[in-house]
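thought: fold this chain, then report.
action: predict
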Amino acid sequence: MEHLVMGTAGHVDHGKTSLIKALTGIDTDRLKEEKERGITIELGFAFLDCPDEKRLGIIDVPGHEKFVRNMVAGASGIDFVLLVIAADEGVMPQSREHISICSFLGITKGIVALTKIDMVGEDWLEMVKEDVQQYIASTPLVGAPIVPVSAQTGVGLTALKETIQKIASQIERREDAGVFRLPIDRVFTIKGFGTVVTGTIISGGVSVADEVVILPQKINSRVRMLQVHGNSVQEARHGQRTAVNLLNVEKTQITRGSLVTAANALYPSLRLDVSFTSDANFSGKIKNKDIVRFHSATSEITARITLLGANEIHAGESCFAQLYLQEKFAAIAGDRFVIRSFSPAVTIGGGVIIDPLARKCKRNCADAWEGMRHLAQGSLKERCALLVRRAGVVGIKPQELVVRLGSKSATVVQALRELTQAGELVLLDAESLECVATETLQRLQETIVARLATYHRQNPLTKGVNKEELRMLTGAYIPSRVFGEAWKRLEGMGKVKMEGNEMRLSSHAVDLPDELGMLKASIIEIYQKALLTPPNLKEVISSFPKKEKEFKAVLLLLLKEGVLVKIDEEMFFAAAAIAELREKYRNFLLAKGKATPADFRELTGLSRKYTIPLMEYFDIDKLTIRVGDARVLREKPA
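observation:
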């Protein structure tokens, strides 16, 4: 069975709730205060079965101006609207505001129910019908059928039901990104079951036992039970009015405006790029940096609006804008919103979210306008390529693109593959499909070459630089995977080389000037003559007055070339002497099984000054392992 949602709209006391009761037999006013005051305060819910296997969920919204925020919450997610206008009063202020809200939410299909016809004469009814036709001609409901009806006498109810069914059959389900989202419009508890939330699923679907998260609170939960219009089901889909029984969630933790969604699917944000249009009926003007009320799905959040390229806009005008929200909101590109003034709270505009994960931009920057225009009007592949370029060296994954493009995962993946085949993108991982723009990778390659050239210039006596150090010099924020891809491409072009863990330009070679060459030879001679009893570092440096800087550079080169071995900060040995001692020490251990410091001194004839550091070095070098005061071979003798 296909499910659709119809919402009511209209001025207070025009008979919305009575009409729904007459159509369905369900009284949507459930609060004591609603019964006492005779007006709808909270959202009410009913349903109507159509003959063509469609079940129509009905959301009855408040008509009083004080409860417009509740009306907006109910209007989000509906497929078409039943505009209720009382024949004895005609079009009233809240009728106009409700239709503006529906317009901004993208609701273009609807019916006008002209109620209370039992209270007026035929001539008056005709005059009101004419007035309503004239009014809706300038709204998205232009051409909508107008059905006179009386909930009290039942006149017109059959015609209204037939018209509702006809409009329902014409509704085409809007494509969604496939990510399960249920904006919460009601929270309550049931004894023995715990917390239950209700709402209209605006995209994707959910099944019993699915892992979900409640945003923006980031509460992890699991679906215990599902109901659609009071019937228990194993799964619920896009367009269905659904009750979800959540595990491990307290009623006090969540409110209307929270969102139940698939785990790890959305990215709550404080900043939104939007296409904004001012309400044609708004008599004032909207200024840059105004504080406003942002309504989307069932959320109401205080926000600051930044107008791009304009200081103010007037009724009916449009522009690109950024909304900076007081609290995080999880959206998908293409979601619609309504803006109301902060005080007094009246509807002043609305529009479409272009990028739900926007970055801060300068409002008079032409590139910012062009980027928003591109995201608002470009093809899927063009928008996809732009977002990958914007991600820079950090790269971007398909799931983030699903959110920022508002398209299904399979569609996004196909676009990524086509862009990769065209050479515009580089795939970093075949499994996750993480990617980066080709031009971004090329700029990174240029930066790596430049950083290496600078390093070689500043360190002429070193062969290369450690891989991680080079990444940090290039940009600590660069992911290892992206850096590795850039390096691989540079190697393929023959521009760079890697020896061990050191990276260098292919053209670089250590070329010592004569003076440094002589210094190098002198240092080697000192350590080769000293064998296993070298002087400490300070003593060696003192042999070369006023050349400490050059000495340290040459010493580092000798360590990298493997000519010298560093035991600690003050003790260095000729590598050949250490190699010879290592073999001698190993043979001793093979014969004796273990060696104490006293054994090592007897083997080498060295003092404690050298014995302990050398034994610790061979531990680090993984020749030996300490057992008590003695050492044994780490390797197992054959």
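thought: worth noting. The chain has six domains: 2-170, 181-262, 269-369, 370-421, 440-505, 515-633.
final: tokens above.
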